[in-house]
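Section 5.1 Outputs to date
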Amino acid sequence: MFINLEQKEIDYILENNYIGQLGYIYNNEPYVVPITYFFDKEINAIICYSEDGHKMNAMRKYPRVSLLVSDIDNVTNWKSILVHGKFEQHFGSDAKAYLHKFSLGIKDIILDKEQVKASFISDFSSKIYKDNIPAVFIIKVEGITGKKRMTS
């Protein structure tokens, strides 16, 4: 049986994870890729970064995106949320500030959940590209839904 998540369950999943599945449209085709994220509840936005390429070009062209985050114990015990929002790329000092917040936030989540101290972004996310500055973006949250399946 599938049950709608309460708001506190939705918030907990979004705030206490850092890997999600980003959905976007490119050439009228849907794509879903794994991505490292940090949810900044102060601004109600998801902070991410990426190499400049296919995904970034697609989101610049069509900024409506989604992010799926799941907590899965097994096939009959799971919780999943789907965030709908709007992509916004940031540059310069804004981008640097967001990347700093992203790094600090994820380090705290990893320390709390996994009891591991991450020292660098490369410890928990795709490497920072040495030749290129990463493209920093946020997803302004416009809506979130959540479901769960529990058998116990």
